[in-house]
Design the sequence.
C-alpha cells in the first residue's frame, strides 16, 4: 500500500538531514500505490540531503504518478538548485506529459544558477511537454544570466517552432540590448551558414542601424499583401519623430514625392524644391514649364 515519511513540528524546526562522505540517498518506493514525503511545520520546514564528497540524490518514483509539491500558504515557496560545478533539473516523461509548473499569488520565479560550470534545465518527453510559469496577481520573471554565453533555443524537429509574446492590457515588448557590442536579429534557412542569412542590427558602427541580406536575393518591402488595393497606405520617410511631416513619400501605386509635406504626389515624380541634373535628360512626350527655362 502507501509508503510515507512524515516529519511534523507544530512550533519549531522540523528537519530531515542526511549527510554522508560517500553516496547519500533517500529512497521511498511503493510497487502498487502512493509514496509520499511530507514535511510540515508551523515555523521553518527543511528537507536537506547533502553529500560532502560524492553524489547526493532524491528519487520520487511511482508506477503511476510521481510528484514533488512545494507549497507555502502565506509566504515564499522556493526550489533552489546550486552547485559550484554542474547543476541540473531533469523532468522526463517516457510516454505521457511532463510538466514543470511554478505558481504564485505574488512573485513566481525559476532560477538555475552555477558559479563555475554548466547550469541546465532539461525537459523532454515522448508526448506533450509543457513549461508553465504563472502568477495570479503579480509579476512572472524568466531570468537567464551567464558570465559567458547565455542562450535559449526553441526547436521543433518535425513542425513549427513559435515564440509568442502576448499582453492582454499593457504593451508587449521584445528588447534586445548589448551594453558593449552590436545588437542584432539573424534570419537563416540553415544553421551556421553566413551567406544564406539576413539580419537587422544596431551598433556595428556607433549609432547606425543596418538591414542586411547576405544572400543574392532582393530586400522587399510590402504593404497590403492582398490584391484588393483598397484604403492602402504609403511608404513614408520622416525625420525627427513620427509626428513630423514626410520628407519622402512613395504611394502604393508607384508615385514618388520628394520634399517636405508632399504626402500625396500627383505625378510619377513630384519634387517640392529645386532639381539638379548632371547628365542628359530625355522627355518622350514633350516638356511643359512655368516660368523661365
Sequence:
Amino acid at each position: 500500500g502507501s509508503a510515507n515519511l512524515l516529519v511534523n513540528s507544530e512550533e519549531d524546526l522540523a528537519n530531515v538531514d542526511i549527510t554522508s562522505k560517500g553516496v547519500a540517498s533517500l529512497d521511498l518506493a511503493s510497487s502498487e500505490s502512493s509514496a509520499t514525503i511530507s514535511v510540515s511545520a508551523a515555523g521553518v520546514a527543511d528537507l536537506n540531503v547533502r553529500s560532502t564528497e560524492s553524489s547526493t540524490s532524491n528519487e520520487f518514483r511511482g508506477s503511476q504518478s510521481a510528484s514533488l509539491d512545494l507549497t507555502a500558504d502565506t509566504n515564499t515557496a522556493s526550489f533552489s538548485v546550486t552547485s559550484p560545478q554542474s547543476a541540473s533539473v531533469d523532468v522526463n516523461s517516457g510516454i505521457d506529459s511532463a510538466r514543470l509548473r511554478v505558481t504564485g499569488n505574488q512573485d513566481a520565479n525559476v532560477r538555475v544558477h552555477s558559479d563555475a560550470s554548466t547550469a541546465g534545465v532539461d525537459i523532454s518527453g515522448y508526448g506533450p511537454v509543457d513549461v508553465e510559469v504563472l502568477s495570479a496577481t503579480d509579476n512572472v520573471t524568466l531570468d537567464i544570466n551567464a558570465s559567458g554565453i547565455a542562450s535559449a533555443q526553441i526547436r521543433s524537429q518535425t513542425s513549427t517552432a513559435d515564440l509568442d509574446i502576448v499582453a492582454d492590457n499593457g504593451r508587449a515588448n521584445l528588447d534586445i540590448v548589448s551594453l558593449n557590442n552590436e545588437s542584432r536579429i539573424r534570419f537563416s534557412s540553415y544553421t551556421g551558414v553566413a551567406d544564406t542569412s539576413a539580419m537587422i542590427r544596431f551598433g556595428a558602427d556607433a549609432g547606425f542601424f543596418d538591414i542586411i541580406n547576405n544572400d543574392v536575393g532582393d530586400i522587399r518591402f510590402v504593404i497590403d499583401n492582398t490584391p484588393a488595393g483598397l484604403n492602402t497606405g504609403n511608404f513614408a520617410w520622416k525625420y525627427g519623430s513620427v509626428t513630423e511631416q514626410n520628407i519622402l513619400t512613395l504611394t502604393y501605386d508607384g508615385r514618388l514625392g520628394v520634399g517636405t509635406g508632399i504626402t500625396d504626389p500627383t505625378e510619377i515624380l513630384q519634387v517640392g524644391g529645386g532639381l539638379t541634373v548632371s547628365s542628359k535628360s530625355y522627355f518622350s512626350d514633350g516638356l511643359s514649364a512655368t516660368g523661365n527655362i
Q: What stands out?
A: The chain has a mean pLDDT of 79. The two ends are 105 Å apart (CA to CA). The first strand starts at residue 3 and ends at 9.
